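Appendix B. One record, verbatim.
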Amino acid sequence: MAAFRDMEEVSDGLVSLLRANRAEAQQRRLLGRHEQMVERLLEMQDDADRQLRDTLAVEEEVAQSLLDLKECTRQGGTELQQLEVELQKASKEDTCLQARLCQLTAELQELREMEKDLERQEREVDEDNTVTIPSAVYLAQLYHQISKIEWDYDCEPGTVKGIHHGPAVSQPVHLDSAQLSQKFISDYLWSLVDTTW
């Protein structure tokens, strides 16, 4: 604004000089002043252009940084979702493993109790020096604990039938003793027993 006022003042001065028909020296002085103002205006314009370029460069950097930050946020969100899915899977697997561990612990406890009972009975036999035969119910329970086979006692004579509760899945057992040898049936049933302790 001050530059424009100076230009107006110079112009008014030139006009008054021309009217008053003053000396050429005064005219040169005013023209020199006019030249200085034009140079000053050009410098101001250069400064303004440079500041505008700097501002645009800064704005561009800020915009790029914002875009980069948004991309990082998006990628982080995706990774977080994947980690949540993996955590849920791991949690389900852990729950299944905990349940299986509890089951195995209970079975191990039963076997230890049976072992203690068997040892107690053996001691009693040794003490008595008499031979005792375990009851049929006890033997049936022992065979069931070892073989994991639930027998079907209502099946037809000559048929071996039941359900084997294996480590992975349960499977039916259905054998015809008229068509199969006792050795084959015995070997087949022993093959179902889990040997992993």
